[in-house]
Design goal:
heterodimer, A: 225 residues, 3 domains, B: 249 residues, 10 helices, 82% helix
Chain lengths: 225, 249
């Protein structure tokens, strides 16, 4: 295959990847949004839309912004592998490092057809391995369900979220202490001085995120990060 | 039948399984397609196989840590929903946080796990978890093709430089967003301590953070890179175990 043939072949490969990816993701989106609703039908109930919409707006304010940033930043690195990478999740912490690792092993460069192919192979393989490990793990987990529901273990499950944010605090705070100082102090003071706000944590994420974004942008512009 | 039994019933597993199978099929199609394209374009089979085996081995340990995430959420939401969420679009830090936001909005003022779960709250949580992270997929459906054409075509050199130029500010804002998010939660634990005297959330967060620090220290000091894959889920499980011990005091 000469260069022209190669380019033309890649063009047609890429177009068919876009076609399959678009249809696959569109079906996936419908199934993923529909699954909890179908689970609701099986349980004989539906979502409480009065709660779901405000909660979704709070989540969207944080995660839709980061989804846009992830799309703009990582899609050019992954090429058509983005379809599989975005629908299988764990993008930043697993799929991207995995694709970069495969790229280094195969010696391909970002933006080339070869890189698209290696990234797609890598991300698809990674996703299949994750799904398989989880499926096997869940099969083993079912017999353990009574143990997981034991009253003695409930304090552990009641504190999943503090455990999550404790671990994340170390990870993100120590990434940039300059970025952390202002939002952390402001949010601590706010909750200490106005305890009534403790029932509004999910709304105040917007304030904390806004302060951190403003500080981040300021420090970035001043070359302090 | 109690709600948790219904959440772990066969129909719920079938619904979650259907979504997972659909995503697996998509992965297999892309895998076969890209392998064949690589061969057709003259790439060495050895290289392509290396890409597959290195990706499989690279993923194995993090997948076990994702499984620990399913275990962590299974006590509150049953097994099928966390299984589905963490097999497809989700990520551990996202799922726990969004489940908590939805739980608070749906009538658990103290957050996920602080009051008895109802079927409607469960469905609300599941829907918000799904819809809250779907935007990346929507953007791919609508804009990936034109976006890739735009960033790659104008100048040959720009295909290499464009991503790295954006990554600077993108990374800062991405980190800032999470710093703000985590600051809010840690601030709320400090506020809970000063206003109600309940020190458990702050103590658990502290133990989990300390565990994370130890994981990272050992990983760097001893150059055990695979340990990084377990640091998040491991720290969470240590923090959760501490809650049992501290609660007994």
């Amino acid at each position: 295959m000469n260069e022209t043939e190669k380019r033309s072949f890649y063009e047609s490969y890429s177009n068919s990847c876009h076609w399959i990816g678009r249809i696959g993701l569109a079906v996936g989106i419908v199934m993923m949004l529909g699954a909890p609703l179908v689970m609701g039908l099986a349980l004989g109930t539906g979502p409480d839309w009065g709660s779901a919409i405000p909660a979704l707006l709070q989540v969207a304010a944080v995660y839709w912004v980061s989804s846009i940033a992830e799309f703009l930043v990582y899609a050019p690195l992954l090429g058509t592998a983005s379809y599989v990478a975005f629908i299988t999740g764990n993008l930043v912490n697993l799929k991207l490092p995995c694709a970069v690792n495969a790229r280094e092993i195969c010696g391909t460069r970002v933006g080339t057809p070869e890189n698209d192919i290696v990234s797609t192979l890598s991300v698809a393989t990674s996703s299949l391995v994750t799904v398989t490990v989880l499926a096997v793990g869940v099969l083993c987990l079912v017999p353990l369900t009574p143990v997981l529901q034991a009253p003695a273990l409930q304090p552990a499950f009641n504190n999943v979220i503090p455990a999550l944010f404790g671990a994340l605090a170390y990870k993100y705070f120590f990434k940039s202490l300059r970025l952390t100082a202002v939002p952390l102090v402001v949010m601590c003071l706010l909750f200490v001085l106005v305890p009534a706000l403790l029932s509004q944590v999910s709304i105040l994420i917007l304030l904390g995120g806004g302060i951190a974004l403003a500080v981040g942008y300021f420090l970035y512009r001043k070359d302090k990060l | 039948m109690e709600l948790m039994e219904r959440l772990n019933s066969v129909p719920m597993f079938l619904i979650a399984g259907a979504v997972i199978v659909m995503v697996m099929v998509l992965c297999v199609i892309f895998m076969v397609k890209s392998y064949r394209a690589g061969i057709a374009m003259g790439m060495e089979k050895e290289k392509l196989r290396n890409a597959i085996t290195s990706s499989a081995t690279f993923t194995l340990l993090p997948s076990v840590s994702i499984l620990l995430g399913v275990i962590a959420l299974a006590g509150s939401l049953g097994i099928p929903l966390p299984w589905m969420r963490l097999s497809v679009v989700g990520a551990l830090h996202y799922e726990g946080n969004v489940a908590d936001i939805a739980a608070r909005a749906a009538g658990m003022p103290g957050g996920l796990g602080t009051a008895e779960l109802t079927a409607s709250t469960f469905v609300t949580i599941g829907f918000v978890m799904a819809a809250g992270i779907i935007l990346g997929c929507v953007l791919c459906v609508l804009f990936l093709k034109p976006y890739l054409n735009r960033v790659r075509r104008p100048k040959k050199a720009s295909a290499e430089t464009q991503p790295s130029q954006k990554q600077g500010l993108g990374d800062v804002l991405f980190t800032a967003m999470f710093v703000g998010l985590v600051s809010t939660y840690i601030g709320s634990y400090v506020g809970t301590l000063t206003s109600t005297g309940d020190w458990m959330p702050l103590a658990v967060a502290f133990v989990a953070g300390l565990s994370m620090a130890v994981f990272e220290y050992v990983s760097r000091k001893r150059n055990i890179t695979w340990l990084d894959n377990f640091s998040m889920a491991g720290s969470m499980l240590i923090g959760m175990a501490a809650a049992i011990g501290l609660g007994a005091l």
